[in-house]
Fold:
Amino acid sequence: MTRTDRYYVTTPIYYVNDRPHIGHCYTTLLADVAARFMRLSGRETFFLTGTDEHAEKVVAAAAERGITPIAWADRNAHAFQEAFAELNFSNDDFIRTTEDRHKDKVDAYIRALKETGDIFLGDYEGWWDGSQEEYVTETTAREHDFKSPVTGRPLVKRTERNYFFRLSKYADRLLAHIEANPHFIAPEARRNEVVGRIKTGLQDVPVSRAVDPNDEAASWGILMPDDPGHRVYVWIDALFNYLSAVDTDDRRAYWPADAHVIGKDILWFHAVIWPCMLMAMDKALPGCVYAHSYWIREGRKMSKSLGNFLDMPTLRGYCNEFGVDAVRWYLATQGPMGATDADFAHGRFVEMYNADLANSVGNAMSRVSNMIAKYFDGALPDAKGVTEYAGHDWPAITNAAVESAIAKMNRLDIPGAMQDGLSIVRRVDGYVHATEPFKLAKDESRMGDVAAILYHCAEALRIASLILWAAMPERMEEAWKRFGTPVVVGETPLKELAQWGRLTPGTPIEKGEALFPRADAEAPEPTPVGDPAG
Ligand code: MSP
Structure:
């Protein structure tokens, strides 16, 4: 099997101290849409997400509650798994850094890097941001008045004897790689930022923290091989998950990952440190590191201090009111995939729901099935080989949309690919408007035209639904059922499924309830469902 037949997509692994919120769900949704689309395209796909559990904060949070760190981690990892199941994410695995399968691999990777001299012992002095568990550079520290750029808490000066990774050695190779692979870091604005910063010079980075072997908290994490006085820095431990999860005989062929989907806050680790570590290990680099921007809420930044995080109870409220797929659609198509932040605003949600789903996808499907019910007793009519009518060359139209969606998904342009699906639906609307089958049906001699028009509409909508499925699996599977064309994902590749003319005349077309009932623009925000803390 060649590389292009496989697809491996990852999300960041999330800190177990947080409750899942829109940010985690969004990143994971993007990976889910990509994974689903690739599976439907016929690629052997592996989609990985999980939790990052070895942070010092976990020990403190568990102690506050009088439970063990692992009990606390179990509880919260579970909350992520539940949230992701509610949103219908199709991850093939969920890795936790506390699992032996991960810890054993990290030990082996670090041993190998010590062996080659890429990891060595040295001294480090710097500004420590305890709230983020990371060092910030002297410049950043100054710029932020020696406070954490993220949380505003004071930075402290720390000196440590640490193990370091020889990042400086790889700067030139990394720059050459970025130049030779324009999509390696996306979107482009992010790539330029990274390139600019690499050019100012790369310093070796610490990869361990000194610990007191007698301190109980020190046992939380992965100890440096042959040196119990040091623990692997949580970020280094975490990055290895992308490799450790597939470093088994049955999964090894998935490496390198095609896409690491992340948020802009963690780009440096993914686009610089991780690729250099991979070079040091003599491993192939991922195809793309895609760093999206942030969701804000009703025009305001979300933060713990404002207490306005769009959390699971809020998202669940939306799912209950509009359906999971409507939430997935809004996030996937209106989200901050580019270099600017996006606003989750209730008014905008309802506007897009009505415009894209109720008035377009849902309306076109019910209109077409209603006419088939009325004029052809609910059985799909025969277009008798006519594929072009009233200036609409349907095979060409649908083919172009599918090709375009595939090309866009290959560069993770998820909103663009979804618009290709929607564009077919809009063409169907325009076609019905232009040809007026409901008027033609009054004249018996024109029933052949009506049959051709309705076949074209149904077939075009079926093809649109294949593209839209990645974002809206539940509703599109319902549409497949109604159109009598259930799809076994991965069995027949998308290009073949999307060939014009696969719908068989005579197939019963079910009417059913509206796929996306129209929403009242004046109605208030849905009530949150469930306990925000639990
Ligand atoms: N554990 C690290 C990642 C290690 S990956 C080897 C971490 N975890 S996190 O729980 O803080 O999750 C960070 C991710 O959540 C960000 O990269 C981003 O994907 C997402 N988001 C957090 N807040 C967000 C928004 N307000 N909007 C969109 N996504 C944001 O960092």
The pocket of 5'-O-[(L-methionyl)-sulphamoyl]adenosine is lined by residues 12-15, 18, 23-24, 26-27, 52, 238-239, 262-263, 265-266, 294-295, 302 (CB under 6 Å). Residues 346-497 form a domain with the Isoleucyl-tRNA Synthetase; Domain 1 fold (CATH 1.10.730.10). The CA atoms of residues 409 and 522 lie 35 Å apart. The longest strand covers residues 119-129.
